[in-house]
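ok new one. same drill as before - structure tokens go in, u give me an amino acid for every spot. 160 of them this time. try not to just spam alanines like last time pls lmao
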């Protein structure tokens, strides 16, 4: 029983470290392991297990697209449930589209997706999707960027 509690505390400490700032080094999992007294392989295995349990969705960067010379837009199409999969395949073929999802609303525009690229490429992608689908599109350019940071209080204060 004591081993389970210790393992759980290690996982909590690992989650806390990862959300505070993932090491930007050649061997980040080894570096996390050094802080926790674990080997590199064990850190990777623990994070895999936490992901399988749904506690970690993804580990990756949040890029400032404007500093990279790119911008982003949110777009939507009107689709029926019967054609949603077919149109999603068309939309998903572009690497500039990070995700799309169905979200019904009173406007009828219900397949939403984001496009991130140079302005010129965004216009090309949107034009190609319009041609391929034969649909009018609602396009909402980014007007203002909000920095959203969420950090969960994982460890009890006395445990830190």
């Amino acid at each position: 029983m004591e081993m389970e509690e210790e393992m759980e505390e290690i996982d909590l400490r690992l989650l806390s470290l990862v959300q505070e700032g993932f090491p930007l080094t050649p061997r980040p999992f080894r570096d996390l392991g050094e802080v926790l007294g674990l080997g590199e392989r064990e850190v990777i295995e623990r994070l895999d297990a936490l992901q399988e349990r749904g506690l970690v969705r993804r580990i990756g960067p949040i890029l400032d697209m404007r500093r990279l010379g790119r911008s982003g837009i949110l777009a939507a199409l009107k689709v029926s449930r019967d054609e949603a999969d077919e149109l999603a395949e068309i939309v998903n073929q572009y690497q500039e589209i990070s995700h799309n999802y169905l979200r019904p609303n009173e406007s009828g525009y219900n397949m939403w997706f984001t496009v991130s690229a140079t302005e010129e490429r965004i216009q090309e992608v949107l034009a190609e999707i319009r041609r391929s689908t034969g649909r009018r599109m609602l396009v909402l350019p980014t007007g203002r960027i909000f920095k959203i940071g969420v950090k969960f209080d994982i460890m009890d204060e006395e445990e830190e």
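The mean pLDDT is 85. and btw The helical segments are 2-20, 28-36, 40-52, 81-92, 119-133.
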